[in-house]
Amino acid sequence: MTRLLWLCFCLSGAAALALEMLWMRSAGLVLGATAITAATVLACYFTGLGLGSSYACRKSTRPVFRYGCWELGAAAGAFFSLVVFSALAWEPAQVWLSTAPPAGRVAAVLLAILPTTFCLGATLPTLAQALASIDTIGRRASLLYAVNTVGGVIGAAAAGFGLPIWMGVRASYLVAAGASLMAGLSAILIGDRNKPLPATRSVGTDKISVSRARLRLIAAGTGALALGLEVLWTHLFAQVLHNSVYSFTAIILVFLVALAIGAALFAAILRIAEAKTIAAIALVIAAAANVGGLWLFVYLTDGLSYFGMRSGLLEYLLRITTLAAATIGPCAIASGMVLPALWTSWDEPTSVALPLGDLSAASLFGGVVGAVAIGFLAIPIIGVRGTLLVTAVIYLVFADLLAPAQSRFKPFVYAVLLAIVLANPVRAPVVHFFSKDATLQAILEGPSGIVTVTKENGNLQLRLDNFYVLGNSVRATDERRQGLIPILLHPKPRHVSFVGLATGITASAGPALGVEKTTVIELVPEVAAAAASHFANWNSKLLERPDVRLVLDDGRRYLAGSRDRFDVIVSDLFVPWNPGTGNLYAREMYQTAARRLESDGLFCQWLPLYQLTREQFDIIVRTFLSVFPHVSLWRDDFYAELPVVGLVGQFTPKPLDLTEIQERAVQLPDWAKDPLFSTRQGIAMLYVGDISAVPDLFAAAPINTDNRPLIEFLAPRLTRVNLTKKSDWFTGESLGIFYDNLQSRLANISDPLMPAATEVNAARRAGTALYHYTVAVGRHRDADAARYQAEVSRLVPEFVSAGADNAKTNLDTREEQSLVTLRQQQKILLQQLEQMQRRLDKLSGAEKDSGDRAH
């Protein structure tokens, strides 16, 4: 029957890791998907485990029964945490959280997860009393630890690879709670049938003892290093991956598997070596593997090139796990051997629970300090590479502490130290340049990632984590248009909010149009610093203006807790597969934005169709329609392969006065002028149609919600480009067909926004024809291109004439220039989505704005 107890502990590990990932998701929704929120959850999680482990140090006469009770307590706590996070999502709670000090937010998370984590922390010291004796603590306890970690792998995989989308987040909580409930009930049914194991240690213990204080110090230090390295390597992998929930989960799984292997390996090696010797050697290996892993990482990724998807999600995950296993696996395996070795080295324990509970608590508390110190102190001050070097040196210091004073092992430690210094990880690259002409203008490292500003052929580009391009100077007109369109649609906007700053070019539309107050919300502080210091020439010193307010917070959380009302809210481009980004496309986000609007206000959601499939587009539109009774669709540009469109939601739509909009646009300062707004026809060309009039087009699509995060889990599965350079994105001809079908359906329906004038209808058709023209040119269909060009010239002669005067060129020349830019941008996007730089030799140039991460 004792074998069932091992299975119970495996279930316990599965519940623990599944709940951790679910808590990360829930906390991100109520506190914001920020680095601070992630650190808060980790700190509270490990604090609770540490408290439970420390409490369970005492000896128990009925360890199996007590273990079962702890598991039942964890199950009840999981239910309780779901209730607490649900309550924190209510609007009154959000308002309170928005004004609460940091201690209040920490207290809210502690309230939610402490009951469960306390119980889970007590399980190992308690159950080990039934399955291990003092004499077998090294082998049996380490194997028990390994089994629990394997369970953690199962739980993390379930929560990270699809349980929330398959059955919903709330049901996932119930599954995790059910795992603990099953483990607890099984343990109670098994009961304490065996006699207590002897509390004596046989011969064969370590010859040289280490003080308990030193063991605690090393346990706390290595715990801090282990969790800190997880933070460090997550930053490093973010430089080359598409950073979805799947890639993050894959890295966590490799780390957990390596820890389990390390614990099991220790149990095997303990038969031939002393525990302290094993621990010292493992610490040296961890130090060397940490630095060696970094250089191997650089080599395997070809200097931090994009590590993209080739043929599908499974293939991609296998490649990620292989990369992670080769680079962080050896260090994690060595780390997994240390804590079991320290348990075994405890001098004259009175029970198995004492060393397991005491040293595990020290390691867990150390993990709290390590995650916070490395994420919020070390990385911002000395960077990822410098922090990695420091952690390697600290590993060697702990190895030296374990080695006997006159041991031959110490010179070996010093030799490895010298090798690490010579290897010098600070020399490793953290930025990948798209061409030899690119130069690094600035680098800012922080808890949320690495922000860089690069320059190539006069184009200034802002990136987050290497391949996430937030904006660039050459695309200033298109980026600013994303702010101009929604603000111009409102007759008298006084207070406007932008969810996402990036370069600040989009938000500069507020002051350019004379808006009284502009609020800009940015998630990453380093992005705001770069926008202020390097893009002031393009955003007109936006952040220095007295009428502009910068809020460093999660956009959704800020809107949920704010008491302000806005005439216009603009939600910028967001990469749909990034963790935490999918909730910005959720119904709850749109409901929150709707509550913050004035009665005549409007909300605009920009969509990067080159990063969405038709299925995902339909999901977002259906979700949007479930909140806003009137929804219109607008173009930001006419690019065939990299189109950007905007959904504009209103409660009380009013007919647009195109002449008045034109007059407001004409009064823009020179730095903000846009040729498309110089005529009434140009404005109408950007309008696609009233999609709320044809809801049946999207009726089959499900709704994206916090409970069913469809976009977050669906989008990463298609972030690939196949060898024929084709993709599944909603671009090119498929988007053109959609435009045609939509216009056909709307032909006989009265539009509440656009006047039913022949001139306006012709301009709208011209906008679609211009899109078809760029598609035809891109596919080298010259006859079709000529036909669409002629159609545009016939439908909107005033626009063509104005365009020729403004650009001093004809429509064909200007569109050909736009096409060249499109091709240049397409090349870089394909490099981001797939490691295909050499295959795309026909394309050249700069990067398309991938959208603004900040939210």
Short description:
With 855 residues, the chain is an alpha/beta fold. It is 59% helix and 9% strand.
What would the keywords be for this entry?
855 residues, alpha/beta, 8-stranded mixed sheet, 59% helix, 9% strand, elongated, disordered C terminus
Explain what this protein looks like in three dimensions.
Helix 1 runs parallel beside helix 3 (63-88), helix 2 (35-55) packs across helix 5 (102-121) and helix 12 packs across helix 15. The strands form 2 sheets. Strands 7-6-5-8-9-11-10-12 form an 8-stranded mixed sheet, sandwiched between helices. Strands 1-2-3-4 form a 4-stranded antiparallel sheet. The chain is elongated and about 95 Å long. The protein is built from 31 helices and 12 strands. It is of the alpha/beta class.
The tally of strands reads: 12
Largest sheet: 8 strands, mixed
Count the DSSP helices.
31
Spatial extent as radius of gyration? 29 Å
Helix content class: 55-70%
What strand line-up does the widest sheet have?
7-6-5-8-9-11-10-12
Q: List segments where confidence is low: pLDDT < 50 over at least 5 consecutive residues.
A: 199-205, 721-725, 804-855
Multimer state: single chain
Mean pLDDT: 88
Question: Which word captures the global form?
Answer: elongated
| Helix/sheet category | alpha/beta
Give the N-terminus to C-terminus distance in angstroms.
52 Å
Beta fraction? 5-15%
Question: What's the structural blueprint in terms of helices and strands?
Answer:
Layout lengths: L1 H30 L3 H21 L7 H26 L2 H9 L2 H20 L1 H9 L5 H25 L1 H5 L1 H22 L21 H27 L6 H25 L5 H26 L12 H15 L1 H17 L7 H50 L6 H15 L15 E8 L2 E8 L2 E6 L3 E5 L3 H14 L5 E5 L9 H4 L4 E6 L2 H10 L1 H4 L8 E5 L2 H7 L4 E6 L15 H9 L1 E12 L5 H12 L4 E6 L8 E7 L7 H9 L13 H6 L1 E4 L19 H5 L17 H15 L11 H21 L3 H14 L1 H11 L3 H23 L22
Parallel strand pairs: 5-6, 5-8, 6-7, 8-9
Antiparallel strand pairs: 1-2, 2-3, 3-4, 9-11, 10-11, 10-12
Helix pairs in contact: 1-2, 1-3, 1-5, 1-7, 1-9, 2-5, 2-15, 3-5, 3-6, 3-9, 4-21, 6-15, 7-11, 7-14, 10-14, 10-15, 11-13, 11-14, 12-14, 12-15, 12-16, 14-15, 15-16, 27-28, 28-29
